[in-house]
Amino acid sequence: MATDYYGTLGVAKGASDQEIKRAYRQMARKLHPDVNPGEEERFKEVTTAYEVLSDPEKRRIVDAGGDPLAGPGAGGFGANFGGGGLGDVFEAFFGSGGGFGGSRGPRSRVQPGEPALVAVELDLEECAAGVSKEITVDTAILCDTCHGSGTHGDSKPVTCDTCRGAGEIQAVQRSLLGQVMTVRECPTCHGTGEIIPDPCPKCGGEGRVRSRRTMTVRIPAGIESGMRVRLVGQGEVGPGGGSAGDLYVEVGERPHEVFIRDKDDLHCTLRVPIADAALGGSYEVPTILGDTATVTVEPGTQPGQVVKLRGQGMPHVNTGVRGALHVHLDVTVPGKLTAAQTEALTALRDASDDSIDLVTTSAAAGPGGLFSRLRNAFAGR
Questions:
Q1: Which residues contact 379 (CB under 8 A, 6 or more apart)?
Q2: Taking a C-beta distance cutoff of 8 angstroms, is the pair 151, 157 a contact?
Q3: Would you state the pLDDT for residue 349?
Q4: Domains parsed from the chain with CATH numbers
Q5: Which member of 26, 301, 339, 365 lies 3.0 to 4.6 Å from 371 by CB, making a disulfide possible if both were Cys?
Q6: In this predicted model, what pLDDT tens digit does every residue of 198-216 receive, in sequence order?
Q7: Pairwise CA distance, residues 322 & 255, whole Å
Q8: Which CB contacts under 8 angstroms, 24+ apart, belong to 301-308?
Q9: What are the pLDDT digits (tens) for 226-235?
């Protein structure tokens, strides 16, 4: 026959979680072995009933007429308690350091070091060509006096008197469940199980000292802002002279006066007089690597047109393949005209059959139209 867990707690079958918890607390206070030594078995039964009814899956089995604790190895106080035995209960009360089989023993004084990070600012030209950069690094390095041992001369570490080499100390605490033993790190040796009575005068027993040094790092071509160069074993030396972590050099990119970068592509603006836009021509523009490239302006070029020069952008940091240079053409109209210019433009106007028309909204909204440019400009705000 299935155990009557509801009856054990004195609650109805449809009792709420709060009613079950309240009933358990009241009975546990009355039946606790510290209060009533003769009621230990009854206290175990009440605790088991609470454990079952506070678990939704186990309670569903009970409501269906079954017994979730029936079967081999089930039914006693602590059987499947909280899903993992008494150790889980103690851990819930006192954390992962709780002393129910949780002893870890002393840890090594020698620990691996942490990574370090250094920032460096580069010009766009340096990012394009790659550069060797001298940087200043402030990290912990191996103590050159004790070579990481932390001791002075021939002295040696000794066993910690507080924890007797265990690296941890135990304490007994009283709880609802009785006396519970907890384990925590030894405050004297900080978990190592030993102390250094005669520490190195330079590092104070740490086995490492802080030092500022300069070093040269090679920045690859094509690197961009936010990328990092990793230098293995150049970071912080660990406690006790442990292995050093890695050093990361993070690149920042200064704004350029001419070029705007978009990954491996570059963008620039070329101002073209109205006559050159109408008649066409070829022009030389500088590139990011210091050479020049030819931009061909086709006759009848309109404002905002873009000429794409392949292979004139930034090199890819892994492959070295260069992106494109996008030259945006800005057609300029002179604000003041000389007499000769006025005469030439008047003749051009007289010879042209173009007329001034009001542009329809459908045409203006098309790609490159006035409304399209206005929409894109306001959408970017």
A1: none
A2: yes
A3: 79
A4: 5-84 (1.10.287.110), 116-144+210-253 (2.60.260.20), 260-333 (2.60.260.20)
A5: 365
A6: 999 999 999 999 999 999 9
A7: 20
A8: 301/272, 301/277, 301/329, 301/331, 302/277, 302/331, 302/368, 303/277, 303/329, 303/330, 303/331, 304/328, 304/329, 304/330, 304/368, 304/373, 305/329
A9: 999 999 999 9
